[in-house]
Structure formats: structure tokens, C-alpha cells
Specification:
Layout (H helix, E strand, L loop, with lengths): L1 H36 L10 H24 L7 H25 L9 H23 L3 H27 L23 H7 L10 H10 L2 H21 L17
Length: 255
């Protein structure tokens, strides 16, 4: 029992910092890619966020595959303890990261806390539902419920972050667009952060997209990095253990 318990603690404690590393690595590669493209093509700037998102998602899925394989050899507990075991180390990593930024003099760091807390709470519910379904052998339904729940969690967290940091209306000064974001486009804000696009809709406008991605950018990328591994662990750890294959019956010795 000691070895599975140690393996469980190792996986759950190492995975969240690995998500931060995934996010940083994807950002570095995105920066290098943009530097190479900006002197060659006119759409280099427009490709920055989609490139960062795609790299983050790919690396996040790669991490999830490693975690899922390790999760099959960890301690098996109920769906709720598993969900909490996944989310609490993520919360600790987020707190340590915010404290690090605050210690370096970054302003408005703790304004990110409400959105992150909402994300963690809703992600816990999504992992709980996915784990409960996986324990019943309904793995496909577990993935569907988990993905939908995690998407709602990330979307709601980004909406709260934007609402608390950018007003809905502001005065026009010097003929420039107001520093505000119309709430009618709220469901799209998460996808705007990932793609820097309005998907052909009138809202959010180009200026609103700039405000959103300027104030709320790292959190949506962290959601993208952390969600695959969190779901993979919750589902893999909850799946029923494979039944033991009965060996051949012993042949009675001749009298």
C-alpha cells in the first residue's frame, strides 16, 4: 500500500507544476515562432494566440497521457476524494504562483483570485461527475460530462474575471473607443482568449478583444494546460480494475 500511496502523491503533486511548465514552454515557442514569422508574413501577430493555445493544448494532452498511465497504478478511492485530490494541489500551485508574482511587485495579482476560485470549484464538480460515471464503467459518458463541465468551469471563470476587471461602459475620451466590454458577448470570451477571434460576430469588437486578452490571458491558457491531465487522472483512477484472468486448473497428479 505504501508504494501506490507514494505514487499517487507524486503524480498529484508534480502534475500542476508540470502544467505551469507546459504553459511557459508553449509561450516561449510561440514567441520564437512569432519572431520568425513577423518579418515574413503579415498575419504573424494574428497567429500569436492561436499558436500559443494549440501548443498548450498539445503539450497538455501529452502530459495527460503520461498521467493517465500512472493513474492506473495509484490508490483507488471514491470519485469525490479523487476530484479533491486533483484540485487541491492545483489550488496550491496557483496560490504559490500568485504569491510569487505579488512578491515581484506585479500589480493587481490578487484580483485574479475570484475567477480562479470559481474555476477550481466548478472543476471539482466536473471531475466528481466524470469519476462517478467512470466507476460505473461508463467511460465515454465520463469523458463527455467531464469535458463539458470543465469547459463550463473555464468559461464561467473567464466571464467572472472580465466582469470584475473591465467595466460594462465607460466614457469616450479623445475619440478613442471606451475601455469597456459589452456583456452580450460573455459566452465567447474564453474562446476569444484562445483564438483572438470574434468568429464573425459583431461582438466582441477588435478593441474589446484587445482589452480582454490584455487583462485576462494567462488564466485561460492555464485552464487549457491543466484540464486534460485533471480529467485523465480522475477517469483513469476511477475506472474499475481489470478482472483477474483465471489461470488453468491444476491437473490432478496420477495415482
Amino acid at each position: 500500500m505504501t508504494r501506490p500511496l507514494g505514487r499517487t502523491a507524486g503524480v498529484l503533486l508534480v502534475a500542476p507544476p508540470a502544467c505551469v511548465a507546459v504553459l511557459a514552454l508553449a509561450g516561449v515557442v510561440m514567441g520564437l515562432t512569432h519572431g520568425w514569422l513577423e518579418m515574413r508574413v503579415p498575419w504573424a501577430t494574428a497567429a500569436q494566440l492561436p499558436t500559443w493555445s494549440a501548443l498548450t493544448a498539445l503539450l497538455g494532452v501529452a502530459l495527460a497521457l503520461v498521467v493517465a498511465r500512472a493513474a492506473r497504478r495509484t490508490v483507488r478511492v471514491g470519485a469525490l476524494p479523487t476530484a479533491l485530490g486533483v484540485v487541491l494541489p492545483i489550488a496550491a500551485t496557483v496560490t504559490a504562483t500568485l504569491a510569487l508574482f505579488a512578491g515581484r511587485g506585479e500589480s493587481r495579482v490578487w484580483e485574479r483570485a475570484p475567477g480562479l476560485l470559481l474555476w477550481l470549484a466548478l472543476l471539482t464538480a466536473a471531475l466528481w461527475a466524470a469519476g462517478a460515471l467512470a466507476r460505473r464503467g461508463r467511460v465515454r459518458a465520463a469523458w463527455l460530462a467531464g469535458l463539458l463541465g470543465a469547459l463550463v468551469a473555464a468559461d464561467a471563470a473567464v466571464i467572472l474575471a472580465v466582469v470584475t476587471s473591465i467595466p460594462a461602459s465607460a466614457p469616450v475620451a479623445d475619440g478613442l473607443p471606451p475601455d469597456s466590454v459589452d456583456r452580450i458577448s460573455a459566452p465567447l470570451w474564453l474562446f476569444t482568449c484562445w483564438t483572438d477571434s470574434s468568429f464573425g460576430l459583431p461582438r466582441p469588437t477588435e478593441w474589446e478583444r484587445f482589452l480582454i486578452t490584455d487583462r485576462v490571458l494567462v488564466e485561460p491558457m492555464f485552464h487549457l494546460a491543466g484540464t486534460p491531465y485533471a480529467l485523465a487522472y480522475a477517469i483513469a483512477a476511477a475506472r474499475p480494475a481489470p478482472a483477474a484472468v483465471p489461470g488453468p486448473e491444476p491437473v490432478p497428479a496420477p495415482a
